[in-house]
Design brief:
Elements (H helix, E strand, L loop, with lengths): L1 E4 L3 H13 L17 E2 L2 E4 L5 E3 L3 E4 L2 H12 L4 H15 L9 E7 L5 E6 L36 H12 L4 H14 L1 E2 L2 H8 L10 H4 L11 E2 L2 H13 L2 H4 L1 H14 L5 H6 L3 E3 L2 E5 L2 E5 L6 H12 L11 H21 L10 H4 L2 H9 L21 E7 L5 E7 L9 E2 L4 E2 L40 E4 L5 E5 L1 E2 L3 H14 L5 H6 L3 E2 L7 E4 L5 H9 L4 E4 L4 E2 L1 E5 L2 E5 L7 E4 L1
This protein binds 6-diazenyl-5-OXO-L-norleucine.
Protein backbone atom coordinates (compact mmCIF):
# COMPACT_ATOMS: atom_id res chain seq x y z
CA UNK A 1 0.00 0.00 0.00
CA UNK A 2 1.27 3.46 -0.87
CA UNK A 3 -0.12 6.17 1.33
CA UNK A 4 -0.27 9.65 -0.17
CA UNK A 5 -0.52 12.39 2.39
CA UNK A 6 -1.97 15.85 1.89
CA UNK A 7 -3.26 15.16 -1.57
CA UNK A 8 -5.56 17.92 -2.70
CA UNK A 9 -9.11 17.04 -3.66
CA UNK A 10 -8.28 17.95 -7.24
CA UNK A 11 -5.20 15.72 -7.27
CA UNK A 12 -7.19 12.87 -5.82
CA UNK A 13 -9.81 13.40 -8.50
CA UNK A 14 -7.12 13.22 -11.16
CA UNK A 15 -5.80 10.02 -9.63
CA UNK A 16 -9.24 8.52 -9.76
CA UNK A 17 -9.62 9.56 -13.36
CA UNK A 18 -6.21 8.16 -14.23
CA UNK A 19 -7.33 4.86 -12.77
CA UNK A 20 -10.18 4.92 -15.20
CA UNK A 21 -7.81 5.80 -18.00
CA UNK A 22 -5.69 2.80 -17.08
CA UNK A 23 -8.74 0.77 -17.95
CA UNK A 24 -8.86 -0.38 -14.36
CA UNK A 25 -9.79 -3.90 -13.66
CA UNK A 26 -13.06 -5.42 -14.67
CA UNK A 27 -14.03 -8.36 -12.53
CA UNK A 28 -12.50 -11.19 -14.45
CA UNK A 29 -10.47 -8.92 -16.69
CA UNK A 30 -6.88 -9.84 -17.31
CA UNK A 31 -5.65 -6.39 -16.33
CA UNK A 32 -4.32 -5.50 -12.95
CA UNK A 33 -5.26 -2.14 -11.60
CA UNK A 34 -4.25 0.57 -9.25
CA UNK A 35 -7.48 1.13 -7.42
CA UNK A 36 -8.07 4.57 -6.03
CA UNK A 37 -11.31 4.81 -4.22
CA UNK A 38 -10.20 6.32 -1.12
CA UNK A 39 -9.71 10.02 -0.80
CA UNK A 40 -11.03 11.46 2.38
CA UNK A 41 -9.97 14.30 4.64
CA UNK A 42 -6.77 15.36 2.89
CA UNK A 43 -5.40 11.89 2.44
CA UNK A 44 -5.61 9.31 -0.28
CA UNK A 45 -4.84 5.64 -0.17
CA UNK A 46 -3.44 3.98 -3.24
CA UNK A 47 -4.06 0.32 -2.97
CA UNK A 48 -2.68 -2.22 -5.41
CA UNK A 49 -3.30 -5.96 -5.51
CA UNK A 50 0.16 -6.77 -4.19
CA UNK A 51 0.37 -8.64 -0.91
CA UNK A 52 0.48 -6.32 2.08
CA UNK A 53 2.46 -7.24 5.19
CA UNK A 54 1.65 -5.88 8.63
CA UNK A 55 2.85 -6.82 12.05
CA UNK A 56 -0.20 -6.17 14.19
CA UNK A 57 -3.40 -6.48 12.30
CA UNK A 58 -4.91 -6.71 8.85
CA UNK A 59 -8.24 -6.10 7.16
CA UNK A 60 -8.86 -7.18 3.56
CA UNK A 61 -12.11 -6.27 1.86
CA UNK A 62 -13.47 -5.16 -1.50
CA UNK A 63 -13.28 -1.53 -0.42
CA UNK A 64 -10.02 0.03 0.72
CA UNK A 65 -12.00 2.62 2.68
CA UNK A 66 -13.90 -0.10 4.52
CA UNK A 67 -10.65 -1.94 5.27
CA UNK A 68 -9.22 1.34 6.58
CA UNK A 69 -12.31 1.70 8.79
CA UNK A 70 -11.54 -1.69 10.33
CA UNK A 71 -7.89 -0.78 10.87
CA UNK A 72 -8.93 2.51 12.49
CA UNK A 73 -10.78 0.44 15.09
CA UNK A 74 -7.84 -1.95 15.54
CA UNK A 75 -5.57 1.02 16.16
CA UNK A 76 -7.96 2.27 18.83
CA UNK A 77 -7.46 -1.02 20.65
CA UNK A 78 -10.39 -2.91 19.17
CA UNK A 79 -10.16 -6.62 18.55
CA UNK A 80 -10.82 -8.49 15.29
CA UNK A 81 -14.57 -8.69 15.94
CA UNK A 82 -14.78 -4.95 16.62
CA UNK A 83 -12.86 -4.34 13.38
CA UNK A 84 -15.00 -6.80 11.41
CA UNK A 85 -18.20 -5.05 12.48
CA UNK A 86 -16.68 -1.66 11.66
CA UNK A 87 -15.70 -2.98 8.23
CA UNK A 88 -19.14 -4.50 7.68
CA UNK A 89 -20.96 -1.23 8.36
CA UNK A 90 -18.41 0.73 6.29
CA UNK A 91 -18.94 -1.64 3.34
CA UNK A 92 -22.66 -0.78 3.51
CA UNK A 93 -21.61 2.80 2.74
CA UNK A 94 -18.66 2.51 0.37
CA UNK A 95 -19.55 -0.72 -1.48
CA UNK A 96 -23.30 -0.39 -1.90
CA UNK A 97 -23.61 -3.12 -4.51
CA UNK A 98 -22.84 -5.80 -1.93
CA UNK A 99 -22.05 -4.23 1.44
CA UNK A 100 -25.33 -3.81 3.22
CA UNK A 101 -27.69 -3.31 6.08
CA UNK A 102 -30.53 -4.62 3.91
CA UNK A 103 -29.03 -8.08 3.40
CA UNK A 104 -27.41 -10.77 5.48
CA UNK A 105 -24.34 -12.91 5.92
CA UNK A 106 -22.21 -15.27 7.96
CA UNK A 107 -19.33 -14.54 10.32
CA UNK A 108 -16.78 -17.12 11.38
CA UNK A 109 -14.71 -16.26 14.46
CA UNK A 110 -11.58 -17.88 15.89
CA UNK A 111 -10.16 -16.40 19.07
CA UNK A 112 -6.54 -16.58 20.12
CA UNK A 113 -7.58 -18.52 23.25
CA UNK A 114 -8.88 -21.32 21.00
CA UNK A 115 -12.61 -20.57 21.10
CA UNK A 116 -14.51 -20.82 17.82
CA UNK A 117 -17.90 -19.38 16.97
CA UNK A 118 -20.02 -18.77 13.93
CA UNK A 119 -22.99 -16.53 13.54
CA UNK A 120 -25.62 -16.96 10.85
CA UNK A 121 -27.42 -13.74 10.03
CA UNK A 122 -28.91 -14.97 6.82
CA UNK A 123 -32.17 -13.42 5.70
CA UNK A 124 -35.39 -15.38 6.24
CA UNK A 125 -38.48 -15.70 4.06
CA UNK A 126 -41.22 -13.29 5.15
CA UNK A 127 -44.19 -14.80 6.99
CA UNK A 128 -46.41 -14.20 3.97
CA UNK A 129 -44.03 -16.08 1.63
CA UNK A 130 -45.45 -19.13 -0.12
CA UNK A 131 -43.83 -22.07 -1.82
CA UNK A 132 -44.91 -21.08 -5.33
CA UNK A 133 -44.83 -17.33 -4.99
CA UNK A 134 -42.51 -16.94 -7.98
CA UNK A 135 -44.31 -19.37 -10.28
CA UNK A 136 -46.65 -17.80 -12.82
CA UNK A 137 -49.97 -19.63 -12.30
CA UNK A 138 -50.89 -19.18 -15.95
CA UNK A 139 -47.73 -20.65 -17.48
CA UNK A 140 -46.31 -22.70 -14.61
CA UNK A 141 -42.99 -20.98 -15.32
CA UNK A 142 -40.78 -19.05 -12.91
CA UNK A 143 -41.10 -15.26 -13.01
CA UNK A 144 -38.14 -12.95 -12.34
CA UNK A 145 -39.76 -11.60 -9.17
CA UNK A 146 -37.30 -13.48 -6.97
CA UNK A 147 -34.54 -11.44 -8.61
CA UNK A 148 -35.76 -7.89 -9.10
CA UNK A 149 -38.25 -5.71 -7.26
CA UNK A 150 -39.99 -5.64 -3.93
CA UNK A 151 -41.02 -9.29 -3.72
CA UNK A 152 -37.41 -10.53 -4.02
CA UNK A 153 -36.28 -9.65 -0.51
CA UNK A 154 -35.86 -11.80 2.52
CA UNK A 155 -36.03 -10.20 5.97
CA UNK A 156 -32.59 -8.60 6.46
CA UNK A 157 -30.25 -10.05 9.07
CA UNK A 158 -27.10 -7.94 8.79
CA UNK A 159 -27.73 -5.40 11.55
CA UNK A 160 -28.93 -7.99 14.08
CA UNK A 161 -26.04 -10.32 13.24
CA UNK A 162 -23.26 -7.78 13.44
CA UNK A 163 -24.63 -6.31 16.68
CA UNK A 164 -24.96 -9.78 18.21
CA UNK A 165 -21.40 -10.74 17.22
CA UNK A 166 -20.09 -7.49 18.67
CA UNK A 167 -22.04 -7.93 21.90
CA UNK A 168 -20.67 -11.41 22.51
CA UNK A 169 -17.09 -11.21 21.23
CA UNK A 170 -16.31 -7.54 20.63
CA UNK A 171 -14.85 -5.17 23.18
CA UNK A 172 -16.28 -1.82 22.07
CA UNK A 173 -19.74 -0.26 22.00
CA UNK A 174 -21.66 -0.32 18.72
CA UNK A 175 -21.53 3.46 18.37
CA UNK A 176 -17.74 3.41 18.49
CA UNK A 177 -17.25 0.74 15.82
CA UNK A 178 -19.91 2.37 13.62
CA UNK A 179 -18.29 5.81 13.80
CA UNK A 180 -16.14 5.39 10.65
CA UNK A 181 -19.14 4.18 8.63
CA UNK A 182 -21.27 7.06 9.82
CA UNK A 183 -18.51 9.51 8.91
CA UNK A 184 -18.17 8.00 5.42
CA UNK A 185 -21.93 8.27 4.85
CA UNK A 186 -22.29 11.75 6.29
CA UNK A 187 -19.15 13.42 4.92
CA UNK A 188 -19.09 11.31 1.78
CA UNK A 189 -16.23 9.75 -0.15
CA UNK A 190 -14.95 10.07 -3.67
CA UNK A 191 -16.57 7.77 -6.16
CA UNK A 192 -13.94 5.50 -7.67
CA UNK A 193 -13.95 3.91 -11.08
CA UNK A 194 -15.17 0.60 -9.61
CA UNK A 195 -18.33 2.16 -8.18
CA UNK A 196 -18.88 4.11 -11.40
CA UNK A 197 -18.53 0.98 -13.53
CA UNK A 198 -20.73 -1.07 -11.26
CA UNK A 199 -23.51 1.55 -11.43
CA UNK A 200 -23.10 1.76 -15.18
CA UNK A 201 -23.49 -1.97 -15.60
CA UNK A 202 -26.42 -2.28 -13.17
CA UNK A 203 -28.76 0.24 -14.74
CA UNK A 204 -31.82 -1.82 -13.81
CA UNK A 205 -31.30 -0.30 -10.35
CA UNK A 206 -32.05 3.15 -11.70
CA UNK A 207 -35.76 2.34 -12.05
CA UNK A 208 -36.14 2.43 -8.27
CA UNK A 209 -35.99 5.15 -5.63
CA UNK A 210 -32.36 6.11 -5.07
CA UNK A 211 -31.84 6.93 -8.73
CA UNK A 212 -31.37 10.63 -7.97
CA UNK A 213 -28.56 9.78 -5.59
CA UNK A 214 -26.75 7.19 -7.70
CA UNK A 215 -27.73 8.38 -11.20
CA UNK A 216 -27.84 12.19 -10.95
CA UNK A 217 -29.26 13.53 -14.22
CA UNK A 218 -29.82 9.93 -15.29
CA UNK A 219 -26.10 9.08 -15.47
CA UNK A 220 -24.08 6.99 -13.00
CA UNK A 221 -22.12 9.01 -10.43
CA UNK A 222 -18.95 10.19 -12.12
CA UNK A 223 -15.57 8.98 -10.86
CA UNK A 224 -14.11 11.64 -8.61
CA UNK A 225 -17.48 13.02 -7.53
CA UNK A 226 -18.33 12.89 -3.84
CA UNK A 227 -21.08 10.56 -2.72
CA UNK A 228 -22.79 11.80 0.43
CA UNK A 229 -25.53 9.49 1.78
CA UNK A 230 -27.37 11.63 4.30
CA UNK A 231 -30.31 9.25 4.76
CA UNK A 232 -28.05 6.27 5.26
CA UNK A 233 -25.95 8.30 7.72
CA UNK A 234 -29.08 8.96 9.73
CA UNK A 235 -30.10 5.29 9.65
CA UNK A 236 -26.64 4.32 10.88
CA UNK A 237 -26.80 6.95 13.62
CA UNK A 238 -30.12 5.56 14.80
CA UNK A 239 -28.70 2.02 14.86
CA UNK A 240 -25.59 3.25 16.68
CA UNK A 241 -27.78 4.89 19.32
CA UNK A 242 -30.47 2.22 19.72
CA UNK A 243 -28.82 -1.02 18.59
CA UNK A 244 -30.75 -3.44 16.37
CA UNK A 245 -34.05 -1.98 17.65
CA UNK A 246 -33.11 1.11 15.66
CA UNK A 247 -33.37 -0.95 12.49
CA UNK A 248 -36.02 -3.58 13.23
CA UNK A 249 -38.43 -1.18 14.95
CA UNK A 250 -39.24 2.50 14.76
CA UNK A 251 -38.77 4.87 11.88
CA UNK A 252 -36.27 2.80 9.84
CA UNK A 253 -38.49 -0.28 10.01
CA UNK A 254 -41.50 1.85 9.15
CA UNK A 255 -39.73 3.34 6.11
CA UNK A 256 -38.81 -0.18 4.96
CA UNK A 257 -42.33 -1.51 5.35
CA UNK A 258 -43.87 1.57 3.71
CA UNK A 259 -41.67 1.03 0.64
CA UNK A 260 -42.58 -2.67 0.60
CA UNK A 261 -46.29 -1.82 0.67
CA UNK A 262 -45.88 0.80 -2.02
CA UNK A 263 -44.11 -1.63 -4.36
CA UNK A 264 -46.05 -4.83 -3.66
CA UNK A 265 -43.51 -6.40 -1.28
CA UNK A 266 -44.58 -8.56 1.65
CA UNK A 267 -42.15 -7.78 4.50
CA UNK A 268 -44.08 -6.50 7.53
CA UNK A 269 -43.19 -4.91 10.85
CA UNK A 270 -43.92 -8.29 12.42
CA UNK A 271 -41.31 -9.93 10.15
CA UNK A 272 -38.73 -7.37 11.21
CA UNK A 273 -39.60 -7.60 14.89
CA UNK A 274 -39.18 -11.40 14.84
CA UNK A 275 -35.82 -11.57 13.05
CA UNK A 276 -33.10 -13.34 15.09
CA UNK A 277 -29.55 -14.29 14.10
CA UNK A 278 -28.43 -17.81 15.07
CA UNK A 279 -25.20 -18.85 16.75
CA UNK A 280 -23.87 -22.00 15.09
CA UNK A 281 -21.05 -24.41 15.79
CA UNK A 282 -18.50 -24.14 12.98
CA UNK A 283 -17.87 -27.36 11.07
CA UNK A 284 -14.45 -28.63 12.08
CA UNK A 285 -12.71 -30.89 9.60
CA UNK A 286 -9.15 -31.83 8.74
CA UNK A 287 -7.08 -31.93 5.59
CA UNK A 288 -3.52 -33.28 5.65
CA UNK A 289 -2.96 -32.26 9.25
CA UNK A 290 -4.61 -28.84 8.94
CA UNK A 291 -7.90 -27.93 10.60
CA UNK A 292 -10.65 -26.23 8.65
CA UNK A 293 -13.30 -24.21 10.46
CA UNK A 294 -16.18 -23.64 8.07
CA UNK A 295 -19.77 -22.43 8.00
CA UNK A 296 -22.59 -24.88 8.69
CA UNK A 297 -26.15 -24.57 7.32
CA UNK A 298 -27.99 -22.35 6.54
CA UNK A 299 -24.85 -22.07 4.43
CA UNK A 300 -23.92 -25.01 2.27
CA UNK A 301 -20.33 -23.74 2.14
CA UNK A 302 -18.83 -25.69 5.04
CA UNK A 303 -20.40 -29.05 4.21
CA UNK A 304 -19.60 -28.79 0.50
CA UNK A 305 -15.99 -27.71 1.06
CA UNK A 306 -15.48 -30.39 3.69
CA UNK A 307 -16.97 -33.09 1.49
CA UNK A 308 -14.85 -31.98 -1.48
CA UNK A 309 -11.62 -31.96 0.51
CA UNK A 310 -12.42 -35.28 2.15
CA UNK A 311 -12.94 -36.78 -1.32
CA UNK A 312 -9.58 -35.37 -2.47
CA UNK A 313 -7.56 -36.35 0.59
CA UNK A 314 -7.06 -40.04 -0.33
CA UNK A 315 -5.43 -38.96 -3.60
CA UNK A 316 -2.07 -38.18 -2.06
CA UNK A 317 -0.28 -36.30 -3.38
CA UNK A 318 -2.70 -34.56 -5.71
CA UNK A 319 -1.50 -34.20 -9.31
CA UNK A 320 0.41 -30.99 -9.94
CA UNK A 321 -1.38 -27.67 -10.40
CA UNK A 322 -2.33 -27.04 -14.03
CA UNK A 323 -2.32 -30.71 -15.00
CA UNK A 324 -5.26 -32.53 -16.54
CA UNK A 325 -5.18 -34.99 -13.66
CA UNK A 326 -5.63 -32.22 -11.09
CA UNK A 327 -8.45 -30.46 -12.97
CA UNK A 328 -10.18 -33.80 -13.45
CA UNK A 329 -9.99 -34.85 -9.80
CA UNK A 330 -11.04 -31.43 -8.56
CA UNK A 331 -14.01 -31.48 -10.94
CA UNK A 332 -15.10 -34.97 -9.93
CA UNK A 333 -14.85 -34.09 -6.24
CA UNK A 334 -16.82 -30.84 -6.68
CA UNK A 335 -19.40 -32.65 -8.81
CA UNK A 336 -20.11 -35.21 -6.10
CA UNK A 337 -20.19 -32.69 -3.26
CA UNK A 338 -22.55 -30.39 -5.20
CA UNK A 339 -24.90 -33.27 -6.03
CA UNK A 340 -25.34 -33.78 -2.27
CA UNK A 341 -25.52 -30.07 -1.62
CA UNK A 342 -28.20 -29.36 -4.16
CA UNK A 343 -30.40 -32.21 -3.06
CA UNK A 344 -29.96 -32.50 0.67
CA UNK A 345 -29.15 -29.12 2.18
CA UNK A 346 -31.54 -26.52 3.50
CA UNK A 347 -32.30 -24.55 6.65
CA UNK A 348 -31.73 -26.98 9.57
CA UNK A 349 -34.73 -25.50 11.37
CA UNK A 350 -36.91 -26.89 8.56
CA UNK A 351 -35.17 -29.96 7.12
CA UNK A 352 -33.04 -32.70 8.56
CA UNK A 353 -29.56 -32.12 7.15
CA UNK A 354 -27.42 -35.30 7.10
CA UNK A 355 -24.41 -33.35 8.32
CA UNK A 356 -22.59 -36.26 9.98
CA UNK A 357 -22.78 -38.37 6.86
CA UNK A 358 -21.80 -35.61 4.44
CA UNK A 359 -18.79 -34.53 6.47
CA UNK A 360 -17.56 -38.04 7.26
CA UNK A 361 -14.26 -39.27 5.84
CA UNK A 362 -15.66 -42.77 5.34
CA UNK A 363 -18.50 -41.48 3.21
CA UNK A 364 -16.07 -39.33 1.19
CA UNK A 365 -13.79 -42.31 0.67
CA UNK A 366 -16.68 -44.27 -0.80
CA UNK A 367 -17.28 -41.40 -3.23
CA UNK A 368 -13.56 -41.13 -4.01
CA UNK A 369 -13.46 -44.82 -4.83
CA UNK A 370 -16.04 -44.27 -7.60
CA UNK A 371 -13.90 -41.71 -9.41
CA UNK A 372 -12.26 -42.97 -12.59
CA UNK A 373 -8.82 -41.42 -13.16
CA UNK A 374 -9.46 -41.32 -16.90
CA UNK A 375 -13.17 -40.63 -17.46
CA UNK A 376 -15.55 -37.88 -16.37
CA UNK A 377 -18.77 -39.05 -14.70
CA UNK A 378 -21.48 -37.42 -16.80
CA UNK A 379 -24.50 -35.65 -15.32
CA UNK A 380 -27.44 -34.35 -17.36
CA UNK A 381 -26.84 -30.87 -18.75
CA UNK A 382 -29.07 -27.83 -18.90
CA UNK A 383 -28.69 -24.18 -19.73
CA UNK A 384 -27.12 -22.01 -17.08
CA UNK A 385 -28.45 -18.63 -15.93
CA UNK A 386 -26.84 -15.21 -15.65
CA UNK A 387 -24.35 -14.46 -12.93
CA UNK A 388 -24.16 -11.28 -10.97
CA UNK A 389 -21.08 -10.64 -8.86
CA UNK A 390 -22.18 -8.91 -5.77
CA UNK A 391 -21.50 -10.56 -2.54
CA UNK A 392 -18.47 -9.49 -0.59
CA UNK A 393 -16.06 -11.31 1.69
CA UNK A 394 -13.72 -9.70 4.19
CA UNK A 395 -11.03 -11.13 6.42
CA UNK A 396 -9.75 -9.56 9.63
CA UNK A 397 -6.86 -10.35 11.98
CA UNK A 398 -5.72 -8.51 15.09
CA UNK A 399 -2.48 -8.29 17.03
CA UNK A 400 -3.54 -10.90 19.58
CA UNK A 401 -4.21 -13.58 16.98
CA UNK A 402 -8.01 -13.32 16.89
CA UNK A 403 -9.36 -13.67 13.37
CA UNK A 404 -12.71 -13.16 11.70
CA UNK A 405 -13.91 -14.27 8.28
CA UNK A 406 -17.16 -12.68 7.13
CA UNK A 407 -19.16 -12.94 3.94
CA UNK A 408 -22.16 -10.71 3.41
CA UNK A 409 -24.46 -10.08 0.51
CA UNK A 410 -27.50 -8.56 -1.08
CA UNK A 411 -27.27 -11.53 -3.49
CA UNK A 412 -27.36 -9.76 -6.88
CA UNK A 413 -25.67 -6.42 -7.51
CA UNK A 414 -27.64 -3.82 -5.51
CA UNK A 415 -29.87 -6.71 -4.45
CA UNK A 416 -33.44 -6.38 -5.63
CA UNK A 417 -32.68 -2.84 -6.83
CA UNK A 418 -35.19 -1.56 -4.30
CA UNK A 419 -33.79 1.33 -2.25
CA UNK A 420 -35.58 2.46 0.88
CA UNK A 421 -36.42 6.17 0.74
CA UNK A 422 -35.75 8.09 3.97
CA UNK A 423 -33.58 5.22 5.25
CA UNK A 424 -31.15 5.18 2.32
CA UNK A 425 -30.21 1.55 1.66
CA UNK A 426 -30.75 -1.25 -0.85
CA UNK A 427 -32.74 -4.39 -0.14
CA UNK A 428 -31.53 -7.88 -0.93
CA UNK A 429 -32.92 -10.30 -3.53
CA UNK A 430 -31.95 -13.32 -1.47
CA UNK A 431 -35.26 -15.10 -2.08
CA UNK A 432 -33.74 -16.29 -5.35
CA UNK A 433 -31.39 -18.53 -3.36
CA UNK A 434 -34.35 -20.74 -2.53
CA UNK A 435 -35.37 -23.44 -4.98
CA UNK A 436 -38.26 -21.25 -6.15
CA UNK A 437 -39.36 -24.22 -8.23
CA UNK A 438 -37.49 -27.33 -7.08
CA UNK A 439 -35.67 -28.78 -10.07
CA UNK A 440 -35.53 -25.49 -12.00
CA UNK A 441 -32.23 -23.55 -12.06
CA UNK A 442 -31.90 -20.31 -10.09
CA UNK A 443 -29.85 -17.36 -11.30
CA UNK A 444 -26.63 -19.22 -10.57
CA UNK A 445 -27.82 -22.20 -12.60
CA UNK A 446 -28.09 -24.18 -9.36
CA UNK A 447 -30.70 -26.91 -9.54
CA UNK A 448 -31.87 -27.56 -5.99
CA UNK A 449 -34.48 -29.71 -4.36
CA UNK A 450 -37.29 -29.76 -1.84
CA UNK A 451 -34.92 -29.29 1.11
CA UNK A 452 -34.48 -25.72 -0.08
CA UNK A 453 -38.08 -24.96 -1.08
CA UNK A 454 -39.64 -21.71 0.16
CA UNK A 455 -41.42 -21.65 3.52
CA UNK A 456 -42.31 -18.73 5.80
CA UNK A 457 -39.55 -17.94 8.30
CA UNK A 458 -37.08 -20.28 6.55
CA UNK A 459 -33.50 -19.38 5.68
CA UNK A 460 -32.61 -19.81 2.00
CA UNK A 461 -29.58 -22.03 1.43
CA UNK A 462 -26.36 -20.09 0.92
CA UNK A 463 -22.97 -20.89 -0.56
CA UNK A 464 -21.15 -18.31 1.54
CA UNK A 465 -18.01 -19.88 2.98
CA UNK A 466 -16.08 -17.66 5.38
CA UNK A 467 -13.31 -20.04 6.41
CA UNK A 468 -10.46 -20.22 8.89
CA UNK A 469 -7.63 -22.73 8.45
CA UNK A 470 -5.35 -23.72 11.33
CA UNK A 471 -1.95 -25.30 10.81
CA UNK A 472 -0.76 -28.57 12.33
CA UNK A 473 0.05 -26.73 15.58
CA UNK A 474 -3.44 -25.29 15.82
CA UNK A 475 -2.28 -21.78 14.90
CA UNK A 476 -4.14 -19.67 12.37
CA UNK A 477 -2.82 -20.13 8.85
CA UNK A 478 -5.51 -18.66 6.59
CA UNK A 479 -8.60 -16.48 6.84
CA UNK A 480 -10.41 -16.59 3.53
CA UNK A 481 -13.72 -16.58 1.70
CA UNK A 482 -15.24 -15.24 -1.47
CA UNK A 483 -18.17 -13.82 -3.40
CA UNK A 484 -19.62 -15.53 -6.45
CA UNK A 485 -22.63 -17.69 -5.61
CA UNK A 486 -21.72 -21.39 -5.88
CA UNK A 487 -18.28 -20.35 -7.16
CA UNK A 488 -17.62 -19.16 -3.61
CA UNK A 489 -17.27 -22.77 -2.54
CA UNK A 490 -15.00 -23.85 -5.39
CA UNK A 491 -12.84 -20.73 -5.20
CA UNK A 492 -12.36 -20.81 -1.44
CA UNK A 493 -11.46 -24.50 -1.66
CA UNK A 494 -8.92 -23.81 -4.41
CA UNK A 495 -7.24 -20.94 -2.57
CA UNK A 496 -6.81 -23.27 0.42
CA UNK A 497 -5.58 -26.18 -1.72
CA UNK A 498 -3.15 -23.88 -3.50
CA UNK A 499 -1.54 -23.01 -0.19
CA UNK A 500 -1.69 -26.37 1.58
CA UNK A 501 -1.29 -28.76 -1.33
CA UNK A 502 0.58 -26.75 -3.96
CA UNK A 503 2.70 -24.76 -1.50
CA UNK A 504 1.89 -21.41 -3.05
CA UNK A 505 2.26 -18.06 -1.32
CA UNK A 506 -1.11 -16.43 -0.62
CA UNK A 507 -0.55 -13.97 -3.47
CA UNK A 508 0.05 -16.82 -5.93
CA UNK A 509 -2.80 -18.84 -4.49
CA UNK A 510 -5.19 -15.95 -5.07
CA UNK A 511 -3.93 -15.17 -8.56
CA UNK A 512 -3.83 -18.76 -9.79
CA UNK A 513 -6.51 -19.38 -12.45
CA UNK A 514 -9.60 -21.10 -11.06
CA UNK A 515 -11.94 -23.89 -12.09
CA UNK A 516 -15.58 -24.41 -11.28
CA UNK A 517 -17.97 -27.31 -11.42
CA UNK A 518 -21.31 -27.41 -9.56
CA UNK A 519 -22.66 -30.76 -10.83
CA UNK A 520 -25.32 -29.05 -12.93
CA UNK A 521 -24.84 -27.71 -15.51
CA UNK A 522 -22.31 -30.44 -16.25
CA UNK A 523 -19.67 -28.01 -17.42
CA UNK A 524 -16.10 -27.54 -16.24
CA UNK A 525 -15.62 -23.80 -16.32
CA UNK A 526 -12.12 -22.39 -16.24
CA UNK A 527 -10.43 -19.05 -16.22
CA UNK A 528 -7.96 -18.02 -18.88
CA UNK A 529 -4.58 -19.56 -18.25
CA UNK A 530 -5.87 -22.45 -16.17
CA UNK A 531 -4.83 -24.99 -18.79
CA UNK A 532 -2.51 -25.36 -21.71
CA UNK A 533 -4.23 -26.33 -24.97
CA UNK A 534 -2.89 -29.86 -24.54
CA UNK A 535 -4.41 -30.17 -21.07
CA UNK A 536 -7.74 -28.89 -22.39
CA UNK A 537 -7.63 -31.56 -25.11
CA UNK A 538 -6.93 -34.24 -22.50
CA UNK A 539 -9.85 -33.09 -20.38
CA UNK A 540 -12.18 -33.15 -23.39
CA UNK A 541 -10.97 -36.63 -24.21
CA UNK A 542 -11.88 -37.66 -20.65
CA UNK A 543 -15.43 -36.48 -21.28
CA UNK A 544 -15.43 -33.02 -19.69
CA UNK A 545 -17.41 -30.23 -21.33
CA UNK A 546 -15.14 -27.19 -21.03
CA UNK A 547 -16.21 -23.58 -20.92
CA UNK A 548 -13.74 -20.74 -20.71
CA UNK A 549 -15.00 -17.93 -18.52
CA UNK A 550 -14.08 -14.57 -17.00
CA UNK A 551 -13.17 -14.27 -13.32
CA UNK A 552 -14.94 -16.97 -11.39
CA UNK A 553 -15.19 -15.36 -7.99
CA UNK A 554 -13.95 -12.62 -5.73
CA UNK A 555 -11.89 -13.69 -2.71
CA UNK A 556 -10.10 -11.73 0.02
CA UNK A 557 -7.60 -13.50 2.22
CA UNK A 558 -5.12 -13.22 5.06
CA UNK A 559 -2.27 -15.58 5.84
CA UNK A 560 -0.25 -15.69 9.02
CA UNK A 561 3.47 -15.46 8.36
CA UNK A 562 6.48 -15.11 10.57
CA UNK A 563 6.13 -11.83 12.48
CA UNK A 564 2.70 -10.84 11.24
CA UNK A 565 0.06 -11.11 8.57
CA UNK A 566 -0.02 -10.99 4.79
CA UNK A 567 -3.22 -9.64 3.28
CA UNK A 568 -4.16 -10.10 -0.37
CA UNK A 569 -7.27 -8.70 -1.94
CA UNK A 570 -8.84 -10.25 -5.00
CA UNK A 571 -6.48 -9.57 -7.92
CA UNK A 572 -9.40 -9.80 -10.36
CA UNK A 573 -11.34 -7.05 -8.64
CA UNK A 574 -11.03 -3.98 -6.47
CA UNK A 575 -10.59 -3.44 -2.80
CA UNK A 576 -7.76 -3.16 -0.37
CA UNK A 577 -5.61 -4.97 2.11
CA UNK A 578 -4.84 -2.49 4.88
CA UNK A 579 -2.60 -3.38 7.78
CA UNK A 580 -0.96 -1.76 10.76
O1 LIG B 1 -25.73 -16.85 -0.40
C1 LIG B 1 -25.38 -17.14 -1.52
O2 LIG B 1 -24.86 -18.20 -1.81
C2 LIG B 1 -25.56 -16.13 -2.63
N1 LIG B 1 -26.62 -15.23 -2.28
C3 LIG B 1 -24.28 -15.42 -2.86
C4 LIG B 1 -24.39 -14.45 -3.97
C5 LIG B 1 -23.12 -14.03 -4.52
O3 LIG B 1 -22.07 -14.45 -4.12
C6 LIG B 1 -23.24 -13.07 -5.63
N2 LIG B 1 -22.04 -12.74 -6.21
N3 LIG B 1 -21.00 -12.59 -6.22
Amino acid sequence: MIRLRNVSARAARLLVLSTLALGACRHGGARQTVDIGTYLGGEALLVAAEPVFAQHGMVVSNSALASAAGVEILKQGGNAVDAAVATGFALAVTYPFAGNVGGGGFMNIHLADGRNAAIDYREIAPLAATRDMYVDPATGKLTNKSVIGHLASGVPGAVAGMAEALGRYGSMPLAKVMAPAIRLARDGFLVDSALFRSLRSNRAVSQFAGRDLFYPGGEPLAPGSRLVQAELARTLEIIAAKGPAGFYQGEVAEALVAEMKRGGGIITLEDLRRYKPEWRTPIRSTYRGHTLLTMPPASSGGITMTETMNILEPFAPLPRFGSAGYAHLLTEAFRRAFIDRNEKLGDPAFVRVPMDQLTSKTYAQSLAAEISRTRATPTPAFKTGTEPEHTTHYSVADGKGNVVATTTTLNGGYGSGVWIPKAGFFMNNEMDDFAAQPGAPNMFGLVQGEANAIAPGKRMLSAMSPTIVLDANGKVLLVVGAAGGPRIITTTTQVILNVIEHRMSLADAMRAPRLHHQSLPDTLRYEDGAFSAAVADSLRAMGHALQRTGGLANANGIMRVSGGWIGVREPRSTGGAVGH
